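Lab notebook, bench 4. The sequencing result for the construct came back, and we need a structural model before the next group meeting so we can plan mutations. Quick request posted to the team channel:

Model the 3D structure of this chain.
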Amino acid sequence: MGSNTRTLTSGGFNSVHIASELKDVRILDILLKNSDPELLNLKTGTGISPIMSASAGGNMDNMNLLLEKGSDPWELGPNNYNSFDLIALGGSLDLLK
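Done. Here's the predicted structure in token form:
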């Protein structure tokens, strides 16, 4: 018996989205090992993917893990922003080097 990684919050986020925002890459790694690979690029109702969640928070470890697993950083989200746009908007320009 495990958790359902597809369960959504009221804002449309699943556990992979939420773990992408956390500062502990181990949690995200465990979830990704035990979830549907389709969740890597699954968007919320407002168009946010897990890598966008990690990017907006400037979480490089989670971004790298998501990229390694096949997440698409060029996918467009709200306002036609991709992950790189969100890094810049969040003020984490050093991550773009």
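The chain has one domain: 15-96.
Will bring this to the meeting.
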